[in-house]
Amino acid sequence: MAILHLFIRTVLNLRNKLALNMKEIRLEFFLKTSPSVLFSRISTPSGLAEWFADNVKVEGKIFTFIWGDTEQEAEIRNMINNESIGFRWLDLEPGYEFGFNIIQDELTGDVALVVTDHVDDDDVEDTRNLWCSQVAKLKQMIGS
């Protein structure tokens, strides 16, 4: 029993250390499009396959993202039509999530996509660069 307790305590300590090394990054991109068009690109398999992954499959709330021979599954955490969608990676520890929020300025009508991602300390710069590259592809796809 003492060994099991020690093992559980070790696992919980490791998990806490991993959580301490995690950073949230938020990136804001302005796009010349409507919230409904943008939402279809961030929330549907066909829309995400245009810019985020090579292919995307969905079954219920589980999205399977395919890049070459690699597949990764994420579950929808939350979704508000034409406003936001959040995902949680299923093969990673809790806390590894990413999401998209659409913000439209009431006065100017400008539309922004806010990308939020949770990554390890060591991956912040690479992740920022990846999102910038992916959103540039999204802008090209929607003619923005």
List keywords for this structure.
alpha+beta; Alpha-D-Glucose-1,6-Bisphosphate, Chain A, domain 4; seven-stranded antiparallel β-sheet; 4 helices; 7 strands; 39% strand; globular; disordered N terminus
Description:
By secondary structure, this protein is an alpha+beta fold. The protein has a single domain, classed as Alpha-D-Glucose-1,6-Bisphosphate, Chain A, domain 4. 36% of the residues lie in helices and 39% in strands. It contains four helices and seven strands, in the order αβααββββββα. The protein has helices spanning 2-20, 35-43, 45-49, 124-142; strands spanning 22-31, 55-59, 62-67, 70-80, 84-89, 97-104, 111-120. The chain has a seven-stranded antiparallel beta sheet with strand order 1-7-6-5-4-3-2. The termini are far apart.
